[in-house]
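=== RUN LOG ===
request id: a7f3
mode: sequence -> structure
chains: 1
length: 218
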Amino acid sequence: MTDAPAPAPETKNRQWIRQLVDFGALAAFMISYFATRDMIFATWVLVGASALALGVGYAVERRFAPLPLITGLFALVFGLLTVFTHDDLFVKLKLTVQNGLLAVVLLGSIPLKKYPFKALLGSAIRVNDAAWRTLTLRYGLYFLAVALLNEVFRSPEAVTAVWHALGRETPNPNDVWTSFRGVLWIAASLFGLSQVPLIMKNMIKDEEPGPISPDTGL
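=== RESULT ===
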């Protein structure tokens, strides 16, 4: 018998390329906003970057990976609503709606012993059902936390109240929310990395998992 083949270098390269594209889209959005202080212009950049990320993801993997497709489509829909209505409420609501829906689906599936997360990521990692149940719970709670935090940071009234409670001057709400997006990307990456020990312990094949990032900021 021969040993199982090691993961192809191309697979690792595809993962890194997709993560770099996703980070590049967020970086382009943040740079364009802080350079112009124009949320509508920055949203135009976000729409273009989201479309590019979907295109590159398809070119690299020859398919649309489910979770990046979901986040990319949300970014396109809410981004286009923003630029057509000239109301940045929509681009800010994207995180709340997207993550809130994911939280409801994931947490609601646990009592039914159904794990939609397995359908979304089963081609990327292979673990037993106990691990899928734990990952479903953890990510469901993560998505819920992101949705709730976004409601705080997108609200000028809430941001002003928090800053005043800390004894600081009234901030620019758009500056605060855009910075929150950057912090969220870091948090998502760290959260994904923190799941690797669980994945390693419960893998059903000798495969090397990559960090799972639920949303890198698109």
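=== NOTES ===
The two ends are 45 Å apart (CA to CA).
Confidence is low (pLDDT under 50) at residues 1-9, 209-218.
=== END ===
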